[in-house]
Design brief:
Elements (H helix, E strand, L loop, with lengths): L26 H19 L4 H24 L6 H21 L5 H23 L5 H20 L1 E6 L5 E5 L5 H11 L33 E2 L14 E7 L8 E3 L2 E8 L2 E8 L5 E8 L3 E2 L3 E2 L6 E3 L2 E5 L4 E6 L5 E6 H5 L13 E3 L2 E5 L8 E5 L5 E5 L10 E5 L2 E7 L3 E5 L6 E6 L11 E3 L3 E6 L3 E9 L4 E9 L10 E3 L2 E6 L2 E6 L5 E7 L4 E5 L4 E5 L4 E6 L7 E6 L10 E3 L2 E5 L3 E6 L7
Parallel strand pairs: 3-31
Antiparallel strand pairs: 1-2, 4-37, 5-6, 6-7, 7-8, 9-10, 11-12, 12-13, 13-14, 15-16, 16-17, 17-18, 19-20, 20-21, 21-22, 23-24, 24-25, 25-26, 27-28, 28-29, 29-30, 31-32, 32-33, 33-34, 35-36, 36-37
Length: 594
């Protein structure tokens, strides 16, 4: 006996799946989908903070899913059976996609990509079939959701850029890392630099780049002037090759280049010939870290000191290696030593060596935020409290002839004694965003700190022979550096306000200009000219005048291809750039000293 569906026009005894139903109400669902995509587009166009884009995108996706579910389940223009059937397909499809999709997708990929696309395609189907038979519409909804969720299952997320734009590939296609490893496996021993002589100990010389962002971690190059006709005569490429994924920058000591990369299940510290790119030695640790946004690989940049390389991997492995040979001298795990959980984007602190101690940030509880280890043997030297979250690095500063280790975390800027870890002073700076940018010392006792939530803040520190007292000079939203460090030239600060380059006054924090859409890139200052060398998020090298009056672009060329978050380096007349897929060296045309 046939059951009459009260929402259909079927006469008694005729199955509702074989009749044309009255038009169902789709417009509320359509409005919800349009509102969702309007929010997504607006967050891209308005150049909002990365945190805002991320949280608004996640919130909008979850709200869309909830609102559409409520609308659909309460939509009385659709039969109860069809409502429950389609809702069940949506729930099961979401669960299955979450379980068997590629690990790179994860819950974040499902929220940002899978669900919005599935729901949008489903609403489009309902709009197109609102007057067809119940059976056609119902099974068509099943097919549409199955196709979209199936496509999501078959794809892989290859990372997300600074604007939360997702790069997708088929999950069976080789990744950039796969292609790099395959190329390495085919390589011959002749492609590796060899030297039968015993390697000489490396020593620091003038013009070397021995730590993250160079001397004092300020992103400045001194004693160099270059030709600026990059549009007509760009720097000449000396070598360019694939490299394993990592967001580490590079060190240049003489003719040696040091960096980190991921090779399959191993984190690798590698030494290359700076003139040719050929590998001289590598040190591997069994460790792999990856997240859906940044991908796989180490994040920190090594440091050179007294013939040794100090490196930190994304899972917390701290190594001291002989710079000439790569032989391990000692190793620690800062996660084990501090009890710190693995950060969302991995351990990213670049080691700092000073006063016979290597300092790293762990973010552990019980005063184990900053950790100091004796450089001689790796034994713990001291520990100090800090905020529980940061992707910044410790750096050295001098106040009144006193060396201090500065560190910016999610709740404060602190200064500690480098030899014993005792707190010298603390400036409270609580906020809701992660901190990634290096503090910058200005004048004698001033510091600039920046982040998405703080904007640009100047802190001046006074000393009265008894204590250090930090005071806020100003807070400005003229510049909101996300993970883009800034530079200072002639009383003006140059850097990124999210994805747009800008200039602000050091004394007041007021913006002078904002122009140049380079994405979430990085910048170096050639202090003697003065010039700004910007590496864009897409791998373009751009020359910009350090001109506080206006944005003046002098030239550009495509240095490498792909998402580029790594800091560039200029040393010994060469320009070094890398990202998570390739590394390159360019010869700069140098000018005679004026």
């Amino acid at each position: 006996m046939a059951v009459t569906d009260p929402t259909s026009d079927a006469p008694a005894g005729v199955a509702s799946s074989h009749v044309v139903a009255k038009g169902i109400r789709v417009w509320p669902g359509l409005l919800l989908v349009l509102a969702f995509w309007a929010i997504v587009i607006a967050t891209r166009v308005l150049d909002l903070t990365i945190a805002t884009v991320f949280l608004s995108g996640m919130g909008a996706s979850l709200l869309l899913t909830l609102a559409l579910s409520i609308w659909w389940l309460s939509n009385r223009t659709v039969s109860f059976g069809e409502r429950m059937f389609t809702f069940g397909v949506l729930v099961v499809g979401t669960i299955v996609a979450g379980v068997i999709s590629d690990p790179s997708n994860g819950p974040i990929g499902l929220i940002f990509v899978g669900l919005p696309l599935a729901l949008t395609a489903w609403i489009a189907w309902l709009l197109a079939t609102r007057r067809v038979s119940v059976g056609t519409r119902k099974w068509g909804s099943f097919g549409v959701l199955a196709i979209v969720f199936g496509a999501f299952i078959l794809t892989r997320v290859d990372g997300v850029d600074g604007q939360n734009q997702v790069a997708l590939s088929w999950r069976w296609s080789p990744s950039a890392e796969d292609r790099y490893l395959a190329e390495r496996s085919r390589a011959t021993k002749d492609e590796t630099a060899t030297d039968d002589a015993a390697p000489a100990a490396l020593v620091l010389s003038e013009g070397d780049w021995r730590e993250f962002r160079g001397p004092n971690r300020q992103g400045e190059v001194h004693g160099v002037q270059i030709a600026t006709d990059w549009n007509d005569a760009p720097p000449k490429v000396l070598w360019r090759q694939k490299i394993g994924p990592a967001w580490s920058s590079m060190l240049i000591i003489g003719e040696r280049l040091f960096t980190q990369e991921q090779r399959g299940e191993n984190e690798v510290v590698v030494c290359l010939d700076a003139a040719t790119g050929k590998e001289i030695w590598s040190h591997e640790d069994k460790a792999r870290f990856s997240d859906g946004q940044a991908g796989a690989g180490p994040r920190a940049t090594p440091m050179f000191s007294d013939g040794s390389i100090y490196s930190l991997g994304a899972t917390g492995i701290l190594n001291c290696l002989d710079a000439a040979t790569g032989k391990a001298k000692w190793s620690r795990n800062i996660a084990t030593d501090s009890g710190a959980p693995l950060p969302m984007w991995g351990f990213s602190s670049s080691p700092l060596v000073t006063a016979g101690v290597v300092v790293v940030y762990a973010g552990g509880p019980n005063d184990k935020g900053l950790l100091g280890y004796h450089t001689a043997n790796g034994e713990p030297a001291w520990n100090a409290a800090s905020g529980p979250m940061s992707y910044s690095s410790p750096q050295l500063a001098s106040l009144g002839g006193n060396d201090q280790v500065l560190f910016l975390s999610d709740n404060s800027l602190i200064a500690v004694d480098p030899s014993g870890g005792a707190l010298r002073w603390k400036y409270d700076a609580p906020g809701g965003a992660w901190r990634t940018v290096q503090p910058r010392q200005i004048e004698v006792n001033g510091f600039l700190i920046g982040s998405e939530d703080l904007g640009l803040t100047r802190v001046d520190v006074k000393y009265d022979e008894k204590s250090w007292t930090p005071e806020k000079s100003y807070g400005s939203k003229a510049m909101r550096p996300a993970y883009n460090d800034f530079v200072v030239s002639d009383g003006f600060v140059y850097g990124f306000d999210e994805s747009i380059f800008c200039c602000a006054d050091v004394l007041s924090g007021k913006r002078r200009w904002k122009a140049g859409r380079y994405g979430h890139g990085q910048v170096l200052l050639l202090a003697d000219q003065p010039l700004l060398v910007v590496i864009s998020e897409t791998g373009e090298a751009v020359l910009v005048a350090a001109n506080s009056e206006k944005h003046e672009e002098l030239g550009r060329f495509q240095a490498i291809v792909g998402k580029t978050w790594n800091h560039p380096v200029i040393a010994h007349g060469r320009f070094f750039v890398r990202n998570d897929e390739e590394i390159a060296c360019y010869e700069l045309k140098l000018l005679e000293a004026q």
